[in-house]
Amino acid sequence: CTWSLTTPATNTLTPAMSALKKLFCIGNPLLDVSAEVDQAFLDKYGVKLNNAILAEDQHLPVFEDLVANHKVQFIAGGATQNTARVAQWQINVPGAVTYTGCIGKDKFGEKLKEAAKADGLNTPYYEIEGTETGKCAVLVVGAERSLIAHLSAAEKYKIEWTQTPEIQGYIAAAEFYYIAGFVLTHSPDSIMHVAKHAHDHNKVFCMNTSAPFLFQVPPFLAAFKDAWEYIDILFGNESEAAVMGEAFGIKGSVSDIALAVSQMPKKNASRPRIVVITQGADDTIVATAGSVRTFPVPKVDNIVDTNGAGDAFCGGFLAMLMEGRSLEEAVKAGNHTAGIVIRRSGCQFADAARYVPSA
Description:
The protein is of the alpha/beta class. It has helices spanning 39-44, 62-69, 79-91, 107-118, 159-162, 165-173, 188-200, 213-216, 218-228, 238-247, 254-262, 309-322, 327-341, and strands spanning 23-26, 30-36, 52-54, 73-77, 97-100, 102-104, 126-128, 135-141, 144-150, 176-180, 204-208, 233-237, 274-279, 282-288, 291-295.
């Protein structure tokens, strides 16, 4: 099928909404270990207010410290897992979304499985011995948050797990695929495996630009370029779009970059690529089939935490496509779910109202 931004009657992904399409995701699973702390706790670990860092050796005791001495909350995290969780919540049909990634066989891995299960997410994780589950310490001081991420097992995902009969079954059962660019750093072969399956079976392959460094580090950019011709839907934000434009020699506004990227060579030319760029509170940009459309973002009051907003947007957006709804509905749902998440600490949404499509 083809997509259109200009003709509402054809602006759908399926002829009818009779059957829900499943979503399969691969990402870097992290267990968010969240707790309210004081400035002295930040000072103890040399962490600044409202900052995000990768854990070094001196930071590693923070996780056990939080569990032992604070009231902690365990949340299934990591960018792609956040998107998968939001999509599953919005769809609200058991088994609609499957997410895999690598975790350790440890107590934090068990907590991660429990948290994901509580969100209704199907998670056939690749579990390994000898490496800790990836974690992110979420240190809340008043209205500010500081993050310490320890990727650990999350970066150990391997193509061999993708090729197992169990995961192959989930891939075959899905019609949509979503993988964040972060996976390019350690398992680009898994990305290509899923991308080629989607192409060979006329399914929809989606990626997220994820972070500027993926376009700035030559091996990661090369891996992204290998996948590029297979990408049906590309998500990103304005800062990532700017660096993407530089990497591909595209000049102009964010809209210009989105349009040019949407028109780059593509394996399945019968399905025009869709490029979706979020810009925080500013208009969401959608480029496809030679045209660009902008969608206003509803004003949100009482913003608590914007971390995870982009992940939540993608979850709401994909949920609508899984139901066969229009791109316009997908953008509206994405802005709705993002609006829910930014009014809460962390990527949380269970107490909120789901998006209700107009038709």
